[in-house]
Amino acid sequence: MEFRNNEAIYLQIASYVSENILLGKWAPEDKIPSVRELAVELEVNPNTVMRTYEFLQNQEVIYNKRGIGFFVAPDGLKKIIAYRKLNFLQQDLPEFFRSIYLLEISLEEVQEKYEQFITENYELNQ
């Protein structure tokens, strides 16, 4: 995983975990990798992964079964969608609109590129 400098690493890891849930790789009630396993996989300090898991637990996306590990919450998918949708609408979308306005990109061009993106990245994987 390539980390960006403009966002805390634990939040980037939270996005990684969330994306695995959004893509259905980890379903509700599935056990997710242990703190140690994920730290090794992502080559980060286990304390960073623990901070990520605490953050996701506070968001009610995952929960801890003491002595067993962390699991995707029954409504974890809905929580992720709500949280990320709100973030996107408040932060990313205004910047996107600003860019397409300044660059004079039409909504038709955006639609075409969006459909191409979905076809190339998601429809082939199903």
From TrEMBL:
SUPFAM superfamilies reported for this sequence: Winged helix' DNA-binding domain
Keywords tagged on the record: DNA-binding, Transcription, Transcription regulation
Alphabetical list of PROSITE patterns matching this protein: HTH_GNTR (PS50949)
Residue stretches making up the HTH gntR-type domain: 7-75
InterPro entries in UniProt: Tscrpt_reg_HTH_GntR, WH-like_DNA-bd_sf, WH_DNA-bd_sf
Domain of life: Bacteria
Signal sequence coordinates: none
Annotated SMART domains: HTH_GNTR
Name of the protein described by the UniProt record: GntR family transcriptional regulator
